[in-house]
Design a protein that fits this description.
The complex is a heterodimer of chains A (about 110) and B (about 120). Chain A is an all-beta fold and about 110 residues long. In chain A, the strands form two sheets. In chain A, strands 2, 4, 5, 6, 9, 10 and 11 form a seven-stranded mixed beta sheet that branches. Chain A has a four-stranded antiparallel beta sheet with strand order 1-3-8-7, with no helix packed on it. In chain A, β7 and β8 form a beta hairpin. The termini of chain A are far apart. By secondary structure, chain B is mainly β. Chain B is built from no helices and twelve strands. In chain B, β8 and β9 form a beta hairpin. Chain B is globular.
Chain lengths: ~110, ~120
């Protein structure tokens, strides 16, 4: 157990819908990262937050957004969902950027 | 942009034998970090081993060791005395110490352990 929690574990929804994935970092970790793992794209970095502020963006679609709250948990919002958004979404956290990243168990999103 | 390549989509090894997984990367930076992550069927991403580019000594963690060749941009993982629990997807990853400090992953190698 890495200490990073993600909810829900599984999510099944329809095209065009909006979902929110939640991540609670390890106690004391200020930095949160979101990654997407799909069959065709592999593991890709989406976005990073540090102490409530967006720090870096990767291959994140405009339909996706995220935020980190004052209690340091983070949410990834996916809207206007398409079949291709079906993937495993990981959250990882580290004490500060540049330190080791610990991964949560992931949320498996299925878009039908 | 940095890229990571794992040229072996699948590997298999007999239990108790040794196996080496290959990884190459491309970067213009001199200071960075390299990692091997294990992803078992549970899908959890587990850090196996890390290597700082400025360190010449190869990292080791029990049965896991790396062969880091900086000039060749090669970072292979050796698993000794393979165990059934080692069966998993293995991902090589690169991270810069500055900027986004994101992880850039290879496509993965699926390792099967034959009893």
């Amino acid at each position: 157990d890495s200490g990073v929690t993600q909810t829900p574990k599984h999510l099944i929804t329809a095209t065009g819908q909006r979902v929110t994935l939640r991540c609670s970092p390890r106690s004391g970790d200020l930095s949160v990262y979101w990654y997407q793992q799909s069959l065709d794209q592999g593991l890709q970095f989406l976005i990073q937050y540090y102490n409530g502020e967006e720090r870096a963006k990767g291959n994140i679609l405009e339909r996706f957004s995220a935020q980190q709250f004052p209690d340091l948990h983070s949410e990834l919002n996916l809207s206007s969902l398409e079949l291709g958004d079906s993937a495993l979404y990981f959250c990882a956290s580290s004490v500060i950027p540049g330190q080791e990243q610990f991964f949560g168990p992931g949320t498996r999103l299925t878009v039908l | 942009a940095q890229t990571v390549t794992q040229s072996q989509p699948e590997m298999s090894v007999q239990e108790a034998e040794t196996v080496t997984l290959s990884c190459t990367y491309d970067t213009s930076e001199s200071d960075y970090y390299l990692f091997w992550y294990k992803q078992p069927p549970s899908r959890q991403m587990i850090l196996v081993i890390r290597q700082e580019a400025y360190k010449q000594q190869n990292a080791t963690e029990n049965r896991f060791s790396v062969n880091f060749q900086k000039a060749a941009k090669s970072f292979s993982l050796k698993i000794s005395d393979s165990q059934l629990g080692d069966a998993a997807m293995y991902f090589c990853a690169y991270r810069t110490p500055q900027g986004a400090q994101k992880l850039v992953f290879g496509q993965g190698t699926r390792l099967t352990i034959n009893p």
